[in-house]
Amino acid sequence: MNLTRLTEKDIIGLDQELVSYSRDLLKKTGMTLREIACFASGVREEEFLRAGEKLKVAVVPITAGLGIIGGFVHSVQDIIRFLGFETVITRGTDVDGFYQAAHQKADIVFMADDNRFIALNLHNGFIADNGIATGRGYVAALHGMSRGLKEKKVLVLGAGPVGRASLEFLQELGAQSAIYDTNTLATVDIKNQDGVTIESDLDQVLIRYPYLVDATPQGSFLALEKLHKNIMVAAPGIPLGLTADTYAMIEERVIHDPLQIGVAVMLALASKD
Ligand code: 2YC
Predict the structure, then answer these.
(1) CA 188, CA 173: separation in Å to the nearest integer?
(2) Does domain 134-255 have CATH number 1.10.287.110?
(3) Alpha-carbon gap, residue 192 to 138, rounded angstroms
(4) Contact 255/235 with Cβ under 8 angstroms?
(5) Which residues, judged by CB distance below 6 Å to any ligand atom, belong to the binding site of ligand 1?
(6) For position 192, what pLDDT does the model report?
(7) What is the whole-number distance in angstroms between the Cα of residue 176 and the centre of ligand 1?
């Protein structure tokens, strides 16, 4: 499956803006990036802080497929450092880089090709997948923004890896979850998962959901007049599904970033001993 592929312009400047990004996240959700990562991964904050003092992370550039994305490994490194973990980028790429990571006694190794972005814990073999981490992290952010999702009506757009992970966490949190995909076949296996509603006519139902997770790679298709008046949106999908003027009008109720939340949750998941 070819996942959405970031471009250099999606991540340019991400490292300079992490402090303002995290302040903005706190304002919108009442949670810091670290608290979102801990809530999504089930890691207690003091455990996560201790792991940060103890563990070393390596990020390996991968040349496979369409190759290196300018700024990608540096953005990943900056997010992980921001969360308090010593982090290196290997000089070598691919297998050579992985060898160097192990040789430099890294405990956790981050690497991404065009189809998969993982964090591997070299001690216990656990692999954190970016799609799962991102889905859980965005639901955690929505949980914060909504002051709790229990019994709340939430619609997930997109039944790919991120949408499915979002749905799973929403169910764990007791939300009244629904999912929609343009391809009706994509949700056929979810059909009678306990309590999940499968929506098929988006234009009809969209306005009935006060909470939305946009996990689609479709850009600029959500206009304000089609949305619930108090809409809150967790938008992991790239490009952003909201139209530019809709985003400008409801920005304080929208969570959207290219890497930060997904990487933070991957780190928390991979840091468990
Ligand atoms: O620079 C590198 O090491 C490249 N091989 C990185 C390729 C990442 C491709 N994946 C993506 O752009 C998106 C990310 C948002 C996470 C998952 N897919």
Answers:
(1) 23
(2) no
(3) 24
(4) yes
(5) 3-6, 61-62, 68-69, 72-73, 112-114, 117, 130, 259
(6) 73
(7) 32
**Torsion angles phi and psi, residue 164, rounded to 5:** -65, -40
DSSP secondary structure letter of residue 198:
E
- For the chain, the structural domain boundaries read 8-131+260-270, 134-255
Counting DSSP H helices and E strands in the chain, the numbers are 11, 11
Which stretches of the chain score pLDDT less than 50? 1
Q: How confident is the model at residue 3, as a pLDDT?
A: 67
The model's pTM is 0.97
Beta carbons of 213 and 157 less than 8 angstroms apart = yes
Q: Rounded to the nearest whole angstrom, what is the distance from the C-alpha of residue 113 to the centroid of ligand 1?
A: 6
Domain 8-131+260-270 matches domain 134-255 at the CATH topology level: yes
Give the position, in ligand 1's atom list, of the atom nearest the Cα of 64. Answer: 5
CATH level 3 topology of 8-131+260-270: Rossmann fold (3.40.50)
Report CA(114)–ligand 1 centroid distance (Å): 6
Instruction: Tell me what pLDDT residue 2 has.
Output: 55
Quick one: pLDDT at residue 194?
80
CA-6 nearest atom, ligand 1: 12
> Which one-letter DSSP state was computed for residue 242?
B
Phi then psi for residue 252, to 5 deg, are: -70, -10
